[in-house]
Amino acid sequence: MSESTADIGLSKDEKPVNDVLTLKRILWTVAQPILVLGSAFLVATMISDEWMNHKLYAVIMILLPVPLLLLAERIWTKRKDWLLKPHELYEDGFWLAFAALLWGPIISDAYRTPVSEGFRALRDRSSFDITIAPESAWGLVAGAILLRICASFPYYWLHRVQHESVFFWRMHATHHHITKMGCLRGDRTHPLEYLALGISTPIFLALLGASDDVIAVAAAFGMWNGKLNHSNLPLISMPVYDWIFATAQQHHCHHAHDRAQADSNYGCQIILWDRIFGTYCGDNEVGQIGAGKAVPLSIKEQLLLAFYPTKRLINL
Fold first, then answer.
1. Cα distance between residue 194 and residue 171, in whole Å
2. Domain range summary for the chain, segments of one domain joined by +
């Protein structure tokens, strides 16, 4: 017989369908690693070969992913019940602008504020005799990945404490009071959480003596990964890659209403520490998304969550 064992029992119509499904699965498996690592490598080559200003690329990457991913979510929707209505998109736009206003003065060269200069001063005066400043493209990517892994260690424990302590949960609750996943939802973060989680990473990078170029490559990695991990796309975790790097499939579990899933996968960029410390969840599917009663909250309520009495916070 000329047919393979795998083809036995399949009609002529079923074989092409299975081939298409297999191809789609492969594409959705490699999509996230290609976009995330490819973006980081692209920035690294821009820096090492000086064929494009990486700051200009950063601006492009800030503006480009959002419309592309919003369109992709409409075409290749993972779950139709997660599709956002116009007022929900406007709300996400508010949080995106809010995040930009907070992050810009902290990490951007364009602002030249005492805060951004403070990180450089900390790096220059660090007592650690470490400098991570490679010049080749591969070296920059390797340095950026190393930094991401190291910086995610304190992030992992801070994030885990937020889930295990009601006192610290109040500043993190805003991020979990969403009932749908979407590429912009990663920016839904309370200002107090930026202080707890956001600033800790640049401080850690400064202490490690990371060069501006390495930080730029690490930022390119995070730019795509953060949006993809919250996206409403049928992304599939790639084996081996998903042992180190956090994926959308893993992060959807973290946003589940089911506490067994939500209290896991604390690494938003790097999943390695979850695997090491026993908080990893590899479920392929999640049910309801959200925290508490899993009902949408107004922007005002989301900003006030950090100041609510414990009883009211828990009963939302």
1. 9
2. 45-315
HSE-CB for 264 with a 13 A CA cutoff: 21
Place of tokens 């009883």: 311
- Six token digits for residue 100: 């930009």
pLDDT at 219: 81
pLDDT of residue 97: 84
Token pair recorded at residue 230: 């919250």
Q: How many Cβ atoms are within 10 Å of 259's Cβ, its own excluded?
A: 10
Write down the residue that tokens 């991570």 correspond to: 132
For 57, the token pair is: 């690329």
Q: Rounded to two decimals, what is the model's pTM?
A: 0.85
- CB 222, CB 144: distance < 8 Å: no
What's the length of the chain?
A: 316
- Which two structure tokens, joined as six digits, stand for 98? 């809010």
Mean pLDDT of successive 10-residue segments in the chain (316 residues)? 46 65 90 94 86 69 82 96 93 85 54 50 60 76 89 90 91 92 90 71 67 81 90 96 96 95 95 97 93 90 89 83
pLDDT at 164: 93
| Under 8 Å between Cβ of 176 and 291 | yes
180 CB contacts (<8 Å, ≥6 apart)?
Answer: 81, 82, 83, 84, 88, 232, 289
